[in-house]
Every structure is written in structure tokens, then in C-alpha cells.
Automatic annotation (TrEMBL):
Biased composition (Basic and acidic residues): 36-48
Family of the protein in this entry: Belongs to the GTP cyclohydrolase I family.
Keywords from the UniProt entry: GTP-binding, Hydrolase, Metal-binding, Nucleotide-binding, One-carbon metabolism, Zinc
Residues engaged in binding Zn(2+): C130, H133, C201
The keyword 4Fe-4S is annotated on this UniProt entry: no
Protein name: GTP cyclohydrolase 1
Record-level GO cellular component terms: cytoplasm
SUPFAM superfamilies documented for this protein: Tetrahydrobiopterin biosynthesis enzymes-like
Biased composition (Low complexity): 1-23
Subunit and interaction comment: Homopolymer.
Region: Disordered, residue numbers: 1-52
GO BP term, example: tetrahydrofolate biosynthetic process
Residues in GTP cyclohydrolase I domain copies: 61-238
Length: 243
């Protein structure tokens, strides 16, 4: 369920899971992943995910040069001479999540601890780009899971957020991809992800509502099926730490 709150005013308490809780978890997830590729399909085929090549970088620089001309600037003036290169490098970094894989990122940091209580990493800052305007949206992610004996290195949860955020995204898909990735690597009893973000395409332009923020959630397994577990998670992400 997605909650959109304008100017921080009306954050709802009722983050419910979606309606497919009766299906076997694994096959449901596989179906969901298959029907929700990282990038839009093109002519029915999934786009190839590959590292930015030198040729691609050159094309990006040419495009920036053209944009500078198109806004009436002189791309040859001193202050703008290096701008196409800078923008191309910035874009390469901001979309670097396309070149990462879950396997490399986790790097085997999965430990059999026999721990079965909730693990939550809160307030993971993230920056992403919306796929509609290629403008930033940024905020905080909260990622929790209830282990099934196995736990993952804590930093890996933040790295998963980072990998999917460094792509062209919509917030709902980003939230779901993070939850599915944790499900895939750990097969835990449940996963919950909440993301709170502010979209520059709604602040700097368009509807121009600075201060509005969007909350999205993805709940899997026990977080979806058990209201108490979900409430415990929601209370924990609201709790103010004393340090
Ligand atoms: N659901 C969702 N929508 C998003 C996200 N990021 C941007 N958008 C929206 O994508 C929509 C694109 O709408 P369009 O009408 O095609 O584009 P537009 O004319 O630029 O729309 P406005 O932003 O309303 O000016 C806008 O409503 C954006 O607010 C996101 O992460 N999730
Ligand atoms: Zn946008």
C-alpha cells in the first residue's frame, strides 16, 4: 500500500500488506519478479543491463552539449567547457546500480546465527532518480526482516537499498525490489520495507509542492500476514532513539 502525504500532514497508520497472502510465498515472489523487470521491456524483450561504455559516455556528453545549446547557453564558454563530461560522469555514478548484482554485493556475508527475532535497519538515507523526469527523489528507507535462522551483514541491507536506488526508478518499484532482494538472499519469515521520500519533480517544477513527501511500503510473509508483527515494525520505525 502506498501513502502520499502532502506537507507532512497526514501520515496514515494503516500500512497493510497486499492481497496475495494465500499464495505460496516462493512461487508468488518468483512470478512477481518475472513480471516486474528492473527496466521497462522494449519490444517485449528485457533491456540489457550493462556497464556504461566509453562510447555511451561520449553519446551522453554530446547530448548534454546539445541541451546546453538548446537552453540558449554557449557550451564553449569557459564555465561550461567541462560540463558535458561532468554531467556524464555524474549520471554514470547515479545509475551505477545497473552494474551491480545482488550476489556480488552480499559477498557471502550470510551467517547462520539461529536468530529468529526482528532485525531492523532504520533511517538508511538514499538518493534516486525518478524515471519520468530524471530528477532526484530522496529520503530514508527502513528495512526489517524476521530471520529463519540466517542473518545478513547489516551493511548489506543498506547496500541493497543503494543498488536499487542508483537506477531510474519509481518509488513503489524501488521499495518492492528491496523487499524481494532480502527475501531472495535470506528466505526469512518475513520482510518489511518502508520508504519516505521527497520528489524534486513535485517540488521544483510541475505541481510545485515542496515539503510534500511520499511513503511507500512492501510487506512480505509474516509482515503481510500478521498485524501484530507489522505494528511492531511500524512502532519501531517511529520510535525516537536516545543517542
Ligand atoms: N507513482 C509514482 N509517480 C511518480 C514517481 N515519480 C514521479 N512520479 C509521477 O509521474 C507522473 C508523470 O506524469 P505525466 O503527466 O506523464 O508527466 P508531467 O506532465 O511532467 O506531470 P506533472 O509532474 O504532473 O507535471 C507525475 O504525476 C509524477 O508526480 C514515483 O516514484 N511514483
Ligand atoms: Zn518525476
Amino acid at each position: 500500500m502506498t501513502i502520499v502525504s502532502s506537507n507532512g500532514s497526514s501520515r496514515s497508520e494503516s500500512l497493510n500488506g497486499n492481497s496475495n497472502s494465500s499464495n505460496p510465498l516462493k512461487s508468488t515472489l518468483l512470478d512477481q519478479v518475472a513480471s516486474r523487470p528492473d527496466r521497462n521491456t522494449h519490444n517485449g524483450k528485457e533491456a540489457q543491463i550493462k556497464a556504461t561504455s566509453e562510447a555511451a559516455k561520449e553519446k551522453m556528453m554530446e547530448a548534454v552539449y546539445t541541451m546546453l545549446e538548446s537552453v540558449g547557453e554557449d557550451p564553449e564558454r569557459e564555465g561550461l567547457l567541462k560540463t558535458p563530461k561532468r554531467v556524464a560522469e555524474a549520471m554514470e555514478y547515479l545509475t551505477s546500480g545497473y552494474n551491480q548484482s545482488l550476489e556480488d554485493l552480499v559477498n557471502g556475508a550470510i551467517f547462520d546465527e539461529g536468530h529468529n527475532e526482528m532485525v531492523l535497519v532504520r533511517d538508511i538515507n538514499f538518493f534516486s532518480l525518478c524515471e519520468h523526469h530524471m530528477l532526484p527523489f530522496m529520503g530514508r528507507a527502513h528495512v526489517a526482516y524476521i530471520p529463519n535462522q540466517k542473518v545478513v551483514g547489516l551493511s548489506k541491507l543498506a547496500r541493497i537499498v543503494e543498488m536499487y536506488a542508483r537506477r531510474l526508478q519509481v518509488q513503489e518499484r524501488l521499495t518492492r525490489q528491496i523487499a524481494e532482494a532480502v527475501q531472495e538472499i535470506l528466505e526469512p519469515q518475513g520482510v518489511a520495507v518502508v520508504m519516505e521520500a521527497s520528489h524534486m519533480c513535485m517540488s521544483m517544477r510541475g505541481v510545485q509542492k515542496p515539503g510534500s513527501w511520499t511513503v511507500t511500503s512492501a510487506m512480505i510473509g509474516s509482515f503481510q500476514d500478521d498485524q501484530k508483527t507489522r505494528e511492531e515494525f511500524l512502532n519501531l520505525i517511529r520510535h525516537q532513539p536516545n543517542f
